[in-house]
């Protein structure tokens, strides 16, 4: 069974005859019928939309974006940029597709840290064995006027769940997390009957397509994968808080 990436690579190299994908108008429906069988068993095209540039059609599979022509003769894998303004239309689109509804996050299953007035809010998926997460915690330690919800997303090592359980079951979860992430001081062993939200958070991360840690979600629903420095985080917090144009 071909994976999506394998199928796209073959298509890009001209190994598989091309055809494209999906949706509302008769042309879009034809494109969907042509391309979908070529993308691998079980791969479903979510939508096909005509773009305002170069007569191309956007083929969307989850949050992945491809492009094709009206006859589905060619498939384009990559970013579409405006040569004058430098705008990356593909990135804008994928950023929009990866947005979440922040209020839907199960914040009761996260660690909560409030600094200063706490008005600026983010949620972070982190693994206790993640070096970049520990680096990001140092950045957060220097921030003020922020609320941080931390979802312990155990995906990196067999003992990630054990470390997270010990921290979750500590008398002061936030202190235990910081002691481990910032100072390498492990939390005491948890009682066997202490329950954790591990399965719930793991399912949530999979649903949101969180493939690495840290992954940062902002109040406006946007996300940034990977660690951020203080300057970058401040900029994204400001952008998330800025009023949106009508």
| Average of pLDDT | 86
- Tally the helices: 8
Output the helix-strand order: HHEEEEHEEHEHHHEEH
Alpha-carbon Rg, integer: 22 Å
General form: elongated
Which percent range describes the beta-strand content?
15-25%
Task: State the major sheet.
Answer: 5 strands, mixed
Q: Strand order across the biggest sheet?
A: 5-7-6-8-9
What's the end-to-end separation, in Å? 46 Å
**How many β-strand stretches?**
9
Which regions have little confidence, pLDDT < 50, spanning 5+ residues? Answer: 1-23
- Given the helix and strand composition, which structural class is it? alpha+beta
Summarize the amount of helix as a percent range.
25-40%
Question: What's a quick, concise take on this entry?
Answer:
The protein is an alpha+beta fold. The protein has helices spanning 4-12, 26-35, 89-97, 131-141, 160-168, 173-183, 198-207, 230-241; strands at residues 47-50, 57-61, 64-68, 75-76, 111-115, 120-126, 146-152, 215-218, 223-225. The chain has a five-stranded mixed sheet with strand order 5-7-6-8-9. A four-stranded antiparallel sheet has the order 1-2-3-4, with helices on both faces.
